[in-house]
């Protein structure tokens, strides 16, 4: 990484940010404090941005897309098939303005739809409340005459209406109570009462849970109101259908909205970078990091812009971001490293070339099956070719192609093809032509050999990690430290091997003495040095535990084989006693379901355990983590691939 400083005119700002984004190799950072630039830093201020406006536009377009997808019943699937678009078409302002206008129209329809849905809910509630009063042949607006009052009310169903009526007659002689209807909760009542007796009547009724129902806003009988509400509901439904139809009709312009959303994502990035720029109104100043591999690209993009820039090596107190850069075929393993932690910029090492081979081999060994490998390879290749996914998803399917090939190779060595499906199928349905696939090593019949191979790979893996540690120490001018950290342990383990083979423990003792006199060398005082060396003897348990961890290579291989064998045997059982064609059909159904399940759970488990062997057993020997991800200003699209005039995709 290089530290970049750049000066330009304010009039060049937007053009400059567009070029930096196209270059894709510059991360714009917060500028240094003005106190560190006393000559002119106090003259600068933060540049103004349109970040809130762009965020609002992005939200508008995203909401419009969601509405179109919802009401047009669009099935987008798990992956998005990107379309290629030239840069000049991608950044055409007229296209974005048209899409924004369309998004506003769709969202306005959606707001109208929300109002109609609220209105529908209110109408349905009104209809529900009117239904109990439907038998009442009395206008709701008729509440009184010159001498009498008409009052609608309710009381609990548990109230005895006969007793309530009798009590009312004693309390208020000129009052009459009539039941209109009832439901499982309450009674619906009409009270006709002389005005002079109203107060006494209501006091009597309230003692039994009576409540008044108010209908001041309604006219006509309840039945007439119910008919009007039903007509309004029908009109509401027609209006909602028209609005939904209008939104659904925009499905043909969905690509325009998707393009606009991608375009606004680029504008959002530029506005976020613009927030970090200092200006005095005439000129602008920005700082950032530029990857050394992108210096020539940066110079090319800035060649026709009026600006002055420089880059330098990072200062010791600065923490540059980390960018892992490898050959394209190797970059897919980035996802494994990034799940753990990026290597430290200073003192670290890119582990991707070191773990790639081991990770692929470990995965293939644990998942070993020719059919599973071919399926994994074909699916990964097909998705990569058709959808061209980017980022972590793209790395996952690119890596899946290598893992599929490795799985298939180990499947050939172990004779696995959907487990023992060929053997079980021919035994059950064609016993006169039983087929057994050849295998160099059968994991179910010779698990000890598999375990020895797994432990051997583990020792090789850990020794390689120690060699990397020696290299890193030598690179930093500490070759002797690297040798003393590692070689005494080699002597110990070589001695253990010789003791097991020949019965002599001399080399083991030499190794432990080497540990005693070397592992505490950085401590002060002879006693502390010896105690530090003595304490290192306890690490032998950690080493043995790390080596035994590689038994999971055998365990996962057996798990894959045994589970597939169980499903294959289960698939043959229902076919006994059935006609052969029916039995074969039943076999295929159970066989497919079982093996798909086996593939699903073991792909996840195998990936996790292959990664674990890198993180805990391998990285612990040399890895220095803590790197900060490099986040350059670049094209980040979801729906399209931006291309140059020559058709090359701009990364």
Description of the molecule:
57% of the residues lie in helices and 10% in strands. By secondary structure, the chain is α+β, with helices and mostly antiparallel strands. Among the domains are: 84 residues, Alpha-Beta Plaits, CATH 3.30.70; 73 residues, 2-Layer Sandwich (Alpha-Beta Plaits); 291 residues, no CATH class. A hairpin with a 3-residue loop joins strand 6 and strand 7. Helix 11 runs parallel beside helix 20, helix 16 runs antiparallel to helix 17 and helix 20 packs antiparallel against helix 21. The model has no long low-confidence stretch (mean pLDDT 91).
Give the tags:
single chain, alpha+beta, 12 strands, transmembrane helix, transport, membrane, ion transport, proton-transporting ATPase activity, rotational mechanism
Give the number of DSSP strands: 12
Q: Segments where pLDDT lies below 50 for 5+ residues?
A: none
Measured as a percent range, the helix fraction is 55-70%
Major sheet size, sense and barrel closure: 6 strands, antiparallel
Helix count from the secondary structure assignment: 21
Mean pLDDT: 91
Shape: extended
Rg is 39 Å
Report how far apart the termini are.
Answer: 19 Å
Strand content: 5-15%
State the secondary-structure class.
alpha+beta
GO molecular function: ATPase binding; proton-transporting ATPase activity, rotational mechanism
Family: Belongs to the V-ATPase 116 kDa subunit family.
InterPro entries: V-ATPase_116kDa_su
Main location: membrane
Question: Topology of this structure?
Answer:
Blueprint (H helix, E strand, L loop, with lengths): L1 E8 L3 H11 L2 E4 L15 E2 L4 H21 L11 E4 H4 L2 H38 L17 E9 L4 H11 L3 E8 L3 E9 L3 H9 L4 E2 L9 H27 L5 H21 L3 E2 L3 E8 L4 H7 L5 E6 L21 H7 L11 H16 L2 H18 L3 H24 L6 H9 L17 H29 L3 H24 L3 H13 L7 H10 L3 H10 L3 H21 L7 H39 L21 E4 L8
Parallel strand pairs: 4-12
Antiparallel strand pairs: 1-10, 1-11, 2-10, 3-9, 5-7, 5-8, 6-7, 9-10
């Amino acid at each position: 990484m290089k530290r970049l400083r750049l000066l330009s005119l304010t009039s060049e700002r937007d053009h400059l940010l567009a070029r930096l984004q196209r270059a894709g190799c510059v991360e714009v950072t917060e500028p240094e404090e003005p106190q560190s630039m006393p000559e002119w830093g106090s003259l600068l201020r933060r540049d103004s941005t349109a970040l809130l406006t762009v965020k609002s536009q992005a939200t508008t377009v995203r909401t419009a897309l969601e509405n179109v997808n919802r009401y047009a019943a669009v099935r987008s699937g798990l992956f998005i098939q990107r379309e290629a678009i030239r840069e000049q078409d991608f950044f055409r302002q007229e296209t974005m303005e048209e899409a924004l206008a369309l998004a506003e129209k769709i969202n306005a329809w959606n707001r109208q739809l929300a109002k109609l849905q609220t209105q529908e809910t209110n109408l349905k509630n009104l209809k529900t409340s009117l239904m109990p009063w439907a038998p009442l042949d009395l206008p709701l607006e008729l509440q009184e005459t010159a001498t009498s009052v008409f009052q609608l009310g309710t009381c609990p169903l548990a109230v005895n209406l006969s007793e309530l009526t009798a009590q009312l007659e004693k309390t208020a002689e000129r009052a009459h109570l009539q039941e209109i209807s009832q439901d499982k909760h309450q009674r619906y009542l009409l009270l006709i009462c002389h005005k002079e007796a109203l107060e006494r009547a209501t006091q009597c009724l309230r003692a039994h849970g009576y409540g008044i129902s108010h209908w001041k806003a309604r006219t006509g009988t309840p039945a007439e109101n119910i008919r009007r509400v039903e007509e309004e509901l029908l009109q509401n439904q027609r209006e909602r259908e028209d609005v939904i139809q209008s939104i659904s009709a925009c499905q043909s312009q969905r690509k325009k909205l998707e393009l606009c959303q991608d375009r606004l994502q680029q504008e959002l990035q530029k506005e976020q970078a613009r927030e970090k720029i200092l200006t005095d109104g005439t000129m602008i100043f920005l700082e950032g990091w530029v990857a050394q591999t992108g210096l020539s690209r940066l110079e090319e993009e800035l060649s026709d812009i009026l600006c002055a820039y420089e880059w330098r090596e990072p200062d010791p107190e600065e923490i540059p971001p980390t960018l892992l850069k490898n050959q394209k075929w190797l970059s897919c393993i980035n996802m494994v490293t990034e799940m753990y932690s990026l290597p430290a910029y200073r003192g670290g090492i890119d582990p991707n070339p070191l773990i790639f081979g081991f990770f692929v081999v470990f995965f293939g060994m644990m998942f070993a099956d020719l059919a599973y490998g071919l399926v994994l390879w074909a699916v990964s290749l097909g998705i990569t070719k058709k959808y061209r996914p980017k980022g972590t998803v793209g790395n996952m399917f690119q890596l899946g192609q290598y893992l599929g090939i490795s799985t298939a190779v180990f499947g050939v060595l172990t004779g696995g093809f959907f487990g023992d499906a060929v053997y079980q199928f021919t035994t059950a349905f064609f016993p006169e032509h039983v087929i057994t696939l050849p295998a160099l090593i059968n994991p179910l019949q010779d698990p000890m050999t598999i375990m020895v191979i797994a432990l051997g790979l583990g020792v090789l893996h850990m020794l390689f990690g120690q060699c990397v540690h020696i290299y890193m120490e030598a690179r930093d001018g500490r070759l002797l430290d690297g040798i003393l950290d590692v070689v005494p342990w080699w002597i110990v383990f070589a001695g253990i091997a010789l003791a097991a083979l020949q019965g002599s423990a001399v080399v083991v003792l030499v190794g432990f003495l080497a540990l005693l006199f070397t592992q505490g060398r950085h401590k002060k005082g002879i006693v502390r040095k010896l105690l530090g060396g003595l304490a290192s003897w306890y690490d032998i348990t950690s080493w043995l535990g790390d080596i035994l961890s590689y038994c999971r290579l055998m365990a996962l291989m057996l798990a894959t084989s045994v589970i597939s064998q169980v499903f294959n045997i289960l698939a043959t059982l229902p076919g006994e006693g059935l006609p052969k064609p029916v039995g074969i059909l039943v076999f295929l159904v159970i066989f497919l379901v079982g093996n798909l399940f086996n593939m699903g759970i073991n792909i996840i488990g195998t990936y996790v355990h292959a990664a674990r062997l890198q993180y805990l057993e391998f990285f612990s020997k040399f890895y220095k983590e803590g790197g900060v991800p490099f986040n350059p200003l670049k094209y980040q699209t979801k729906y399209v691939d931006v291309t140059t005039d020559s058709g090359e995709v701009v990364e």
